[in-house]
Amino acid sequence: MTALPATLGTLTLSGGATSRQAKRWRNPIAFAVDPATGNVWAGGAGQDSLPFGHPFEFMDPVSTQPTESDYGWPDCEEDRVAERRGADCAHVVVPALVFPAYSTLIGAAFYPARSEGKYAFPPAWRGGLFVTAHGSWHTRHGVPAAPPRVAFVRFAGAAPARAVDWHDPDAQWTDFFSGFQTASGRRIGRPTGIAVGPQGSLFVADDEAGAIYRIRPAER
Fold first, then answer.
1. DSSP of 133-189
2. What is the model's pTM?
């Protein structure tokens, strides 16, 4: 990796010229900027102790939505489904990208469409979004409901290549880096932060194993 400079500049934010972009969104902590469009995508950790399998967790290009966009939590989820009796969900945002319930989305990074570094990924991965799912503590029959993983979402232009399928929260993404949880529920790791290095490698932090994984194409 390229060494960081010994001294970094100090950035002071006054907070005076801020506005609320979105509301009623639980714990949006996975943020990524699409370098091709400048759009800011956000994803979060859903609510605990809800019915098994729902609601789906999601990401959305929050910067493209109007100011004060309403994502509905905790009254509305998924495709404007009311989670509480009498809730008005007619005008809440319908997210563009979904994952299974309890995934706990915690990190995200777009892979640059143009990458010429020594360890640049093949074209099939470029322009897509990598998402780290921390997995759940919510269990069913003693097994965590959602395993930790790094997922990959292929993009077509400014949006996921596949539209949301409200019957299948696995339709828009594929497993990229998994195996953190056995069938019995034992875990050997939980991915958190994720970033693309200057030479094209993908770096994934693991707060359970205390490790940072460097992922790069095999040398030929």
1. E---S-EETTEESS--EEEEE-EETTEESS---TT-TTTT-EEEE---B-TTS-BS-
2. 0.89
